[in-house]
Amino acid sequence: MNGLSEFFFPSSVAVIGVSADTSAFGTLYLGALLKFGFKGKLYPVNRRGGSVLDLPVYSSLAGIPGDVDLAVISVPGRAVVGALEECLRKGIKTAIVLSAGFGETDIEGRKLEEELAKVVAKGIRVIGPNCHGVYCPRSGLTLVPGSNFPRESGPVALISQSGGFAEMIVLQSRGIGIRYSKVVSYGNALDVGESDLLEFLSEDEDTKIVMAYVEGVKDGRRFLEVVRRTSRVKPVLIWKAGLTDMGRRAAGSHTGSLAGSKFLWETFFAQSGAVEIGSTDDLIDTAIAFLNLPASIGRRVALVTGSGGAGVIGSDACERLKLSMPTLSGEAQHRISSLLPSIGTSVRNPVDLATPRPRTSVLRGVLEAVAGSDEIDVIILGRMFLSAKGPELILGLTNRPEEHSDDLLEVPLAIRNQFGKPVVIVLSEEVTDREMIDFERDRRSVRDYYLSHGIPVYPTLERAVSALAHVVRYRERFG
Amino acid sequence: MNGLSEFFFPSSVAVIGVSADTSAFGTLYLGALLKFGFKGKLYPVNRRGGSVLDLPVYSSLAGIPGDVDLAVISVPGRAVVGALEECLRKGIKTAIVLSAGFGETDIEGRKLEEELAKVVAKGIRVIGPNCHGVYCPRSGLTLVPGSNFPRESGPVALISQSGGFAEMIVLQSRGIGIRYSKVVSYGNALDVGESDLLEFLSEDEDTKIVMAYVEGVKDGRRFLEVVRRTSRVKPVLIWKAGLTDMGRRAAGSHTGSLAGSKFLWETFFAQSGAVEIGSTDDLIDTAIAFLNLPASIGRRVALVTGSGGAGVIGSDACERLKLSMPTLSGEAQHRISSLLPSIGTSVRNPVDLATPRPRTSVLRGVLEAVAGSDEIDVIILGRMFLSAKGPELILGLTNRPEEHSDDLLEVPLAIRNQFGKPVVIVLSEEVTDREMIDFERDRRSVRDYYLSHGIPVYPTLERAVSALAHVVRYRERFG
Predict the structure, then answer these.
(1) In angstroms, what separates the C-alpha of A140 from chain B's closest C-alpha?
(2) Is the Cβ–Cβ distance between B18 and B46 less than 8 Å?
(3) Which of B167, B334, B360, B457 is most deeply packed, by most CB within 10 A?
(4) Rounded mean pLDDT of chain B?
(5) At what angle do helices B262-272 and B220-233 cross, to 10 degrees?
């Protein structure tokens, strides 16, 4: 470990720069920690003293009775140097600087950032400036704002230059069961940067998957080395923003980053073994795939759909992302043929059942034939309504008497368990009406049911194939 | 018009091949028409007579007392030729063949399709075989299944080789207010194909935008000519599936299509002026953009966001799709600077407010400065919570007393009206928890509010930029 653990597990935190104004950043941060339930000691600090959020305010660090593990600084940019020096005098070794107004602004801001660097050199580690802090459920730390983040810890870590994105990604993850060990919004990366954080996370036993939203990197060579090393032990998902001229310019005024050229980053992704991410959705989709698919996954896909069109676009997506779709064996085709009407369906792969609402026995028989085929590694199930309510809400179809819809829901799970072959499910967000919110509620219940049993679920075929392809490529390289 | 109007406005329809089995395709189709409320005469036909769904069944077409405008045929593949010949004898000029089992299957199916072609040559127009029919709300026709499709007519037409996709796209469109003049699922395109339908729709006054999901095209030269001509008068959005080897193979067994090479299609898109679509989402997103953005739209974007990260990825997306993001004038920057804190924000373009929940007066002032700038054609608003509930549900933030959240919601609309400059809004689907379905309901209400006032709304920045870019490119070419 490279001495970063105090950032994640402090027993005492001083919040420097709280004020009576409850909308001030420092006060919001303090409030977030209190509401989230940080268990350690909390010392609000403000020259003027008084009290805030029912806590006594210390007028200086020196006045705090005990040791302080971590200082969180939210004072105007010009006052940050002084605050850090006060930290040094108090013997504080670790600080998060929330304050902005440094390298991301102008020449004066850059000078200010250089001054900060000099203080850092005297012996204090700094995350930030221009960041939203650290979220670590095990220790009760959270970002600002982030008081309603999940309390449970999980196997994913996220480092993000953007505070807003860190928050957005944790929120989007929450509903689909992705839980975090550590999330760091690291802003301008004056001292502790992407490479330090990755190095730390590569050895962190609580972390099985690392995600990164990166605008710029200070030391490209070191970053390449660290990502390469980390990728050997756990997947590193990197979303590199600012790859265009306009994006680069925006990154400069957001986190003061030098974003680097597109060509350079192509080389980086080829050499480092990092998983290259293209959007928020892609980041979360890929995490779901890594969390739920076995390391032994292969690239030979069987696509089973409720519509021929889905078979065509799913096949396009598989080929574009270099997954293979072997023709099923004669025996499997024969078995599937015996279950389906001979017209309007197809049996080679993609398998088209020609109805989004097959009978339970038909779906079971088809999936048995597919899962039992040696030439198939993974099954994608697309455009099918697996729950009771979907067909009624969407198609106006009610169940036939001989059907029990819960049985249909169980089929993919039973097949996965029986054959030990991974199944990926596409549940479309097909009904977007405000009045038909019940359909979406139902869809989310089905999604949660499968996710809780280790089956990845996606809203579109394209997203399912893309996430699967990321995992397959990584596993082929690193196992 | 090329004689296709009977397909859309028949006063009498014979459904050939209904049966007592209510899950049979013909019976489902008849049931869909009844439930959807087709107003014309309906004649179920089955050799055995009797009655179905409370209608008397005719044992032959000859027995039907009056004229029949349209026959819909759902009998086994081998019996279709006979049914079509019976249509000829009855003087029916127009038929939809729902039955499958033709060119999409095997050599026998292809022979059967050739026999159909011979009957067609005797003087009957056919849509299909292997299709789901026609949806035309003005006349009360619908697809199978499609009894719960919207009853209102609208300015968009869709032709789709895949019946399942036609249905899916209409359903997805429904919640976001896209309404259809005509939807045709045309399957194997034995007689009436993509070119005939486009030709018809190019002259159809009810249709302002045409969408097409195409797997293969029979006469490429004619298709290019028709698309080129149609694009001059209305946008033609084409989603070409089956562009990979695997997709091509799947298309062959889905609609018997020859999908054509990727290179050929690249040339087609460059020459025809069609808008090239890449997915269901892209199709619907682009329709929303065409329906809501003025023809005078330009490519100079101002991006106003509640997070710096959104500014970076939005800039990347704009540059990738060749939209420009001019630096705002000194005057506009000065005005924006006076409204925002000097740190943590940025004012050049992208404009980063550094909070997803700005004060109403701040958002108004910033948007006035941006919309008043000569160098800007369109404003994209990203990562902002514009409704009352969002911030509370997501961030745990309650409104400050001086704020009235409904005012915030009104700001983008007021700016669009005052300056006559289009605004595009990104409302993220940020909270995906099953238990927090209220957030999604609220989000949909806000979305519907803006859409009902002609402001396009998207779930992600990337999708917003992509849809906007489609419209800008089309308008630059055809106005």
Answers:
(1) 17
(2) yes
(3) B167
(4) 92
(5) 30
Confidence of residue B333 (pLDDT cuts 50, 70, 90): very high
By C-alpha distance, which of A212, A217, A214 is closest to A286? A212
Tell me the nearest-neighbour CA distance from A437 into chain B, angstroms.
7
Is the model's pLDDT at B329 over the cut of 60?
A: yes
- What residue ranges do the domains of chain A occupy? 5-289, 295-478
Confirm whether A5-289 and A295-478 share one CATH topology. Answer: yes
Q: Is A21 helix (H, G, I), strand (E, B) or coil?
A: coil
Contact assignment for B440 to A440 by CB distance below 8 Å: yes
What is the C-alpha separation between A331 and B6, in angstroms, rounded? 46
Interval B204-224 mean pLDDT: 94
Is residue B396 classed exposed, middle or buried when 0-12, 13-18 and 19+ CB atoms within 10 A define those classes? middle
A143 lies within 8 A of chain B by CB: no
Q: Are B373 and B419 in contact (CB under 8 A)?
A: no
Q: What is the pLDDT of residue A431?
A: 84
Specify the amino acid at residue B73: I
Helix, strand or coil, per DSSP, at residue A267: helix
Q: Beta strands A236-240 and A301-305: pairing type?
A: unpaired
Average pLDDT of span A227-252 = 93
Scan for tokens 């920690």, then name that residue.
A33
**Edge to edge, what strands does the sheet with B41-45 contain?**
B41-45, B12-16, B70-73, B94-97, B125-127
CB contact under 8 A, A249 and B315: yes
pLDDT in tens, A371-398: 999 999 999 999 888 876 666 656 555 5
CA–CA distance, A173 with B228 (Å, rounded to integer): 45
Long-range interactions of A225-228: CB distance < 8 A, separation 24+: A226/A195, A226/A198, A226/A199, A226/A202, A227/A198, A227/A268, A227/A272, A227/A273, A227/A274, A228/A271, A228/A272, A228/A273
Contact of B385 with chain A, judged by CB distance below 8 Å, is answered with no
pLDDT for A402: 47
In the A/B pair of chains, how many CB contacts fall below 8 A?
249
Nearest to A315 among B244, B312, B350 (CB): B244
- pLDDT tens-place string over residues B264-300: 899 999 999 999 999 989 999 999 999 999 999 999 9
Which CATH code is given to the segment(s) A295-478?
3.40.50.261
pLDDT of residue B402: 47
Chain B interface, best mutation among A169, A257, A322, A432, by max B CB count within 10 A? A432
CATH number, domain B5-289: 3.40.50.261
- Mean per-residue pLDDT, A286-309: 96
Alpha carbon of A172: minimum distance to chain B alpha carbons (Å): 5
- Retrieve residue B395's tokens: 């961030």
Residue with tokens 């609000």: A44
**pLDDT value, residue B19:** 85
Residue B401 DSSP label? T
Picking from A100, A434, A448, the nearest residue to B444 by CB comes out as A434
Q: Residue B127: CB partners within 8 Å, gap ≥ 6?
A: B7, B95, B96, B97, B133, B134, B184, B186, B187, B191, B192
Residues in Cβ contact with B361 at an 8 Å cutoff, skipping those fewer than 6 apart: B339
Distance CA B102, CA B90 (A): 24
- Which of the following CATH numbers is that of domain B294-478: 3.40.50.200, 3.40.1030.10, 3.40.50.300, 3.40.50.261? 3.40.50.261
CB contact under 8 A, B356 and A148: no
Cα A278 to chain centroid, rounded: 12
Q: Both tokens of residue A41?
A: 């000691």
B307–A432 C-beta distance less than 8 A: no
Residue of A nearest to B440 (CA): A437
Decide if B430 and A315 are in contact by the 8 Å CB cutoff: no
Chain mean pLDDT for chain A: 92
Of A76, A307, A396, the CB nearest to B147: A396
